[in-house]
Structure formats: structure tokens, C-alpha cells
Write a structure and sequence with these properties.
The chain is an alpha/beta fold. It has two domains: 238 residues, Ribonuclease Z/Hydroxyacylglutathione hydrolase-like (Metallo-beta-lactamase, Chain A, 4-Layer Sandwich), CATH 3.60.15; 141 residues, Flavodoxin domain (Rossmann fold), CATH 3.40.50. The chain contains twelve helices and 24 strands. A seven-stranded mixed β-sheet has the order 1-2-7-8-9-10-11. It starts with a strand and ends in a 5-residue tail after the last helix. The structure holds MU-OXO-diiron.
């Protein structure tokens, strides 16, 4: 809630979702999120850029009332997903002469998802412009950030780029230009990238380049804060989307009777002694969001599981499935664990890593409690990981 001026004639009319616990019913939001909508008053026409999640429609409508908006000519839909488009029907009801301006793909999705009538749309092509009188909107197609129809809207005279999900961050704050502590902004944006954008890294590379060439004065996303210094968030994305990885090994594990944990603890110790930054996550309690964020840059990921129900633990399979769907740029992977009387499952983990372009180390599976020879195998794995990190130049 609460209207805020961005610059003269342009206002924030979105909504903060301070206590939303989880996004896409999947990953945690420790700092909440926001659904950013902006109204642009031209000398002749008024445009609303994106709307808000349907659960916050009342806040958007109140914000428009606070500004005494009597007429909206255009509702720009940069993206069809409901956290930005879901209030369009309510806006059209309140402002019946408004038209929804978007591209053909987004129009088709909005008809499917929200049952908006065909005659309510004006469709645009890449680089088309729309005059508001003294202000001009230009549409820049930025597909696959993170749906096929995503686009950005550029306010030509002010060089302001409204990017919707692209460059978004999961943070709810009343400071529309962000808190003073840039680390909070960086982490919110990295969490957002990890959870939503990472699978589309190659498409994002092209779109980041387009935005950098445009050199906007301000980037105004649909989630989180507005960037008055766009280079900050462009540079952050350039690191995440590059092929470079960090000297880090994530160890995603679960242990029922302690044997797998003993292996994990030993692997972590030897990795650290070898100079690799190890980060074990007990998936029984760990945050999937934190794991996703670490997957953005980690060179290596190791899955560690005991056998249960004649296979590896279902929570490890679920996490491998998620990692596979997120398609991180991880270069090396390992599988370790302990079994009691038998079982199969290593192949099950492997088959869930098919999207990862990784070199897989020989799995280390031991029987029961680890013995000295088992620790030797784990030490050898740690040394192999360190050697690989050295080979690609991330460990000196
Ligand atoms: Fe923020 Fe793709 O929705």
C-alpha cells in the first residue's frame, strides 16, 4: 500500500507483501516481496504499467484513488503471470475505457488465464512506441525472463526501463530505491534470480546485453526495489549469468542414523583443508531458497543420502529434481552415502541430474558405519574435487 513519487508524473502504486512466506509454493521469502505497479501521467494519456497480485487488488485500487485517477487509457502488461496481471480485470472494471497494451503472446495468455475480452487489447511489436503526449513508451521484447512473452517498457524521455520480473528482487521495503545496505538488495535479487531466472540463463545473457546497450537511467522492476544505479544490478546479473563458477562445494545431505552425516562431515573437513569452500545443507531442515542461491555460483554439488525404502531418500531425490530444474552452471557433481542391507538409487539421483552439464565423480557408497577405508575413499573424492577446482583456475 501507499503511493510514492518516483519522479514528477510517475508514481509507485504497487503493493508490498511483507509477510508472504513462500513463492510459487516452493521457496521461502525471508524478506517478503512486492508487486510493483507504476502510473505514468502524460500530457494527454495516462498509462498504468503492470498491476499487482490479486490478493492485493484492493491496495492498487486504493492507491489509484489516493492519486485521484479518474481515467486510465492504457494498462501495460509486460508479463502475463498473475502476480502482475491478476488485478487487470478489476482495473478494467473500474476504468472501462482502458485498453490493455501488450504483445500477441501475452495477450493470448491473458485471455486464457484471466478471461479478458479480445476487444480490450491493443497489441504491439518489438520497438513499437505509444505516445502519452509529452511522454513516449517504447516496448522492448525481452523473451524468457522468465516466460516466453515477457517484455519491458521504456519511457523514452526519462530513459526509465520498466522490466517487470527481469531484475526483480524478493524484498518488501518502504524504501522504493532500496535500503542503504546494498547487501540486502543484492541478496534479495540473487534469491529472485536463483528461484525464477536461473533456468533461463542463456536467454538472460542476451537480454542483459540489450539492456546494457540501452543504458537506462533507472530500472524499475515488478518486484523489490527500483535501481537508480542500474549498473549495480546489471553487473550482479552479469556475474550470475556468466560461465564462471566459485570455489565452492555444496553438500546436500540427509542422514537417518548418522553414518551418512559422518561421511559428510569428513568430506567437508577435507575439502576445507584442501582450500575448497564446503557448505553442507541438511535437507531435512535446510532452506531450499538458500540452496538455490548457492547453486548460482558453486562449482561442485554433492548429494549424500542413506538408503530407505530400497532406494535413496525421497527428500534427496526431490532436491536433485529441483537442482536439475534450476539448471545451475555447476561443473562437477558427486554422490555419496551409506546403506544397511542393500538398495538401489544412485541411478535415480543421476537420472535427476540430466539437465546439469556436470562431470560426475565415481559415487562413494559404503556399507553401514564408515570404516577407515571408507574415509579414505571420501578423502580421495575431496582431493579430486580440489584438483578439478585447480584445473579450472578457481583454486590456487
Ligand atoms: Fe513476478 Fe513471473 O511473475
Amino acid at each position: 500500500m501507499a503511493v510514492q513519487k518516483v519522479i514528477e508524473g510517475i508514481y509507485y502504486v504497487g503493493s508490498r507483501h511483507w509477510d508472504r512466506p513462500i513463492f510459487d509454493e516452493l521457496l521461502e521469502l525471508p524478506k517478503g516481496t512486492s508487486y510493483n505497479a507504476y502510473i505514468v501521467f502524460g500530457s494527454q494519456k495516462t498509462a498504468l504499467i503492470d498491476t499487482v497480485d490479486p490478493c492485493k487488488t484492493h491496495e492498487l485500487l486504493r492507491n489509484l484513488d489516493v492519486l485521484n485517477v479518474k481515467e486510465i487509457d492504457y494498462v501495460i502488461a509486460n508479463h502475463a503471470e498473475q502476480d502482475h496481471s491478476g488485478s487487470i480485470p478489476a482495473v478494467l472494471e473500474k476504468y472501462p475505457s482502458a485498453k490493455v497494451v501488450t504483445n500477441e503472446k501475452c495477450k493470448a495468455l491473458l485471455i486464457d488465464l484471466l478471461e479478458i475480452k479480445e476487444d480490450k487489447f491493443i497489441t504491439v511489436n518489438d520497438n513499437d512506441t505509444l505516445s502519452l503526449g509529452d511522454k513516449t513508451l517504447q516496448f522492448m521484447f525481452t523473451p524468457w525472463v522468465h516466460w516466453p512473452e515477457t517484455m519491458s517498457t521504456y519511457l523514452v524521455e526519462e530513459k526509465m526501463l520498466f522490466t517487470c520480473d527481469f531484475f526483480g528482487s524478493h524484498i518488501a521495503t518502504s524504501r522504493i530505491f532500496g535500503p542503504k545496505d546494498e547487501k540486502l538488495i543484492y541478496e534479495g535479487a540473487k534469491r529472485y534470480y536463483a528461484e525464477i531466472m536461473m533456468p533461463f540463463r542463456k536467454n538472460i545473457q542476451k537480454n542483459v546485453q540489450k539492456v546494457e546497450e540501452l543504458n537506462p537511467s533507472m530500472i524499475l522492476p515488478g518486484h523489490g526495489v527500483i535501481y537508480k544505479n542500474p549498473q549495480f544490478i546489471i553487473d550482479a546479473h552479469k556475474k550470475w549469468i556468466s560461465d564462471d563458477v566459485d570455489n565452492e562445494a555444496l553438500i546436500i545431505y540427509i542422514s537417518m542414523h548418522g553414518s551418512t552425516k559422518e561421511l559428510v562431515d569428513y568430506l567437508s573437513d577435507i575439502l576445507i583443508e584442501q582450500g575448497v569452500h564446503a557448505r553442507p545443507y541438511n535437507i531435512a531442515e535446510a532452506s531450499l531458497g538458500e540452496i538455490a542461491m548457492d547453486l548460482v555460483d558453486a562449482a561442485t554439488v554433492v548429494f549424500a543420502s542413506p538408503f530407505i525404502l530400497a532406494g535413496v531418500h525421497p527428500k534427496i531425490i526431490a532436491t536433485a529434481y529441483l537442482a536439475n530444474a534450476l539448471r545451475p552452471k555447476t561443473k562437477f557433481a558427486g554422490i555419496i552415502g551409506s546403506f544397511g542391507w542393500g538398495g538401489k538409487g544412485v541411478e535415480h539421483i543421476k537420472s535427476n541430474l540430466a539437465n546439469l552439464n556436470v562431470e560426475l565423480f565415481e559415487p562413494v557408497y559404503i556399507k553401514g558405519k564408515p570404516k577407515p577405508k571408507d574415509f579414505e575413499q571420501i578423502a580421495a573424492l575431496a582431493k579430486k574435487i580440489a584438483d578439478k577446482h585447480r584445473e579450472i583456475g578457481i583454486l590456487k
